[in-house]
């Protein structure tokens, strides 16, 4: 991949959509050996319909929706023993991706937003509220910018680990558009609309990474 800062190589890993392996440290074990040698990282998952989101804040809460084993988990994200972490654990960890440049760039047909909204319990209160512009001091996380499921949790774990080891690199989470089928397709695994959307999303992810990589140097 060629960027404004020179050639870049992309390496990827796929993680299970399961609460248990996350609690056991699959994310940290995978990323920890890499943080000393990569120049940038981003976790990526499917998000909202019709848009990309660069998630500004990652929250420390599991919302309990069933995983691919139909197992639920609700509560504070458990950090496994034996991995570097930040104490006391922050309720929200921010992205260090160059979100302003990503949002401003022309990367494809889908709009790209700097997604700053979170859900928190404000300091001294008991009920969650939505904060469109990010968390307030002393609040408790209930949803990060990416919600409270495993896609948000991998972002929290990755950015927390970044800070724990003092890796001064861009890192955060990118949500892609929901991969939609053509109207009326309720049975087929693919169709022309699906194939076009898939190609355009993949191409735009690559374009976003080219923009982000171009800020390195």
Structure commentary:
It contains five helices and 13 strands. It is an alpha+beta fold and 217 residues long. The protein has a single domain, classed as Aminopeptidase (3-Layer(aba) Sandwich). The strands form five sheets. A four-stranded mixed sheet has the order 3-13-4-9. The protein has a three-stranded antiparallel sheet with strand order 11-10-12, with no helix packed on it. The chain starts with a strand and ends with a helix. Strand 10 (118-121) and strand 11 (129-131) form a beta hairpin.
What's the layout of helices and strands?
Layout: E1 2-3, E2 6-7, H1 19-23, H2 26-31, E3 41-46, E4 52-55, E5 57-59, E6 61-63, E7 74-76, E8 92-94, H3 99-104, E9 112-115, E10 118-121, E11 129-131, E12 140-143, H4 150-164, E13 171-176, H5 192-213
Overall CATH architecture: 3-Layer(aba) Sandwich
Q: What is the CATH C-level name?
A: Alpha Beta
CATH topology value: Aminopeptidase
Biggest sheet, strands in spatial order? 3-13-4-9
Separate helix tally? 5
What value does the Rg take, in angstroms? 18 Å
Question: So what's the overall shape?
Answer: globular
Give me the CATH superfamily: Peptidase C15, pyroglutamyl peptidase I-like
Counting structural domains, the number is: 1
Element order: H for helix, E for strand? EEHHEEEEEEHEEEEHEH
């Amino acid at each position: 991949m060629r960027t404004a800062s020179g050639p870049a190589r992309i390496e990827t890993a796929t993680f299970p959509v399961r609460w248990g392996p996350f609690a056991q440290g699959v994310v940290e074990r995978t990323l920890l050996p890499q943080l000393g040698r990569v120049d940038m990282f981003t976790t990526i998952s499917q998000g909202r319909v019709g848009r990309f989101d660069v998630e500004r804040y990652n929250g420390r809460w599991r919302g309990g929706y069933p995983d691919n084993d139909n197992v639920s988990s609700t509560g504070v994200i458990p950090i496994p023993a034996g991995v570097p972490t930040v104490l006391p654990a922050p309720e929200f960890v921010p992205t260090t991706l160059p979100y302003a440049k990503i949002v401003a760039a022309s990367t494809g047909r889908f709009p790209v937003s700097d997604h700053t909204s979170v859900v928190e319990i404000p300091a001294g209160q008991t009920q969650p509220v939505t904060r469109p512009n990010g968390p307030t001091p002393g609040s408790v996380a209930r949803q990060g910018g990416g919600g409270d499921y495993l896609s948000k949790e991998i972002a929290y774990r990755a950015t927390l680990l970044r800070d724990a080891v003092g890796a001064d690199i861009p890192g955060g989470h990118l949500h892609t558009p929901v991969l939609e089928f053509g109207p009326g397709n309720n049975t087929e695994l693919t169709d022309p609309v699906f194939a076009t959307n898939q190609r355009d999303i993949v191409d735009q992810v690559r374009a976003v990474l080219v923009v982000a990589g171009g800020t390195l140097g």
